[in-house]
Amino acid sequence: MAEAASPAFAALPSPPFYAAIFSSLRNGDDEAGYQAAAARMLELAARQPGFLGVESARGADRFGITVSYWESEAAIADWKRHAEHAAVRAHGRGHWYDHFELRVAKVERAYGKSASR
Amino acid sequence: MAEAASPAFAALPSPPFYAAIFSSLRNGDDEAGYQAAAARMLELAARQPGFLGVESARGADRFGITVSYWESEAAIADWKRHAEHAAVRAHGRGHWYDHFELRVAKVERAYGKSASR
């Protein structure tokens, strides 16, 4: 496992593992509610069996990508069924996003590099 | 293929296909050079056989995620070998990033949703 260069990077084991790639366009409404829910979901996800890590970025155009990493597809399915997560997802679909896409993928290869210092 | 809700979303076929998940921390140097190279790489990638689309987000913290989508692993390998792309990658490793990670993954499932209007 490579040491993460910044807290923004997930420190992941060697592949294979799974990725849930969530891309979304925020509608700009209820930023405080959205931020609180996002922090809570991260806290809950990190406690789920099989959670490996998460990386997230959102630009000023409100388009964002969050990739969460998991040991298995079963771990993603369990997280999807988590009751509080399901309730927040249902709320989010109606209140926070103009559009979103979720892609579930099996990570087969990985490499990384830090700048020489 | 779902119609994209915004140009920020890639309009992708049904899985399976492949994803190159590139996460990076910009060092903040040479923003003009970086932007020009990123635009040029997007233009070149879009001409590559097997290119399906790309999504990208970078926050004010300089951490970004770009996910490019491809028909096959071979298409990703061909893009990696593209001479101009290889030269720009080599330059970028030394000049634009504090750190980056690349994960290559097979997308197995996908779904999306737009807000009701």
TrEMBL record, chains A, B:
Pfam family, one: ABM
UniProt signal peptide: none
UniProt GO MF annotations: monooxygenase activity
SUPFAM superfamilies: Dimeric alpha+beta barrel
Domain ABM, residue spans: 17-104
Highest taxon above the source species: Bacteria
Keyword line: Monooxygenase, Oxidoreductase
Entry keyword Signal: no
Gene3D superfamilies: 3.30.70.100
Protein's UniProt name: Antibiotic biosynthesis monooxygenase
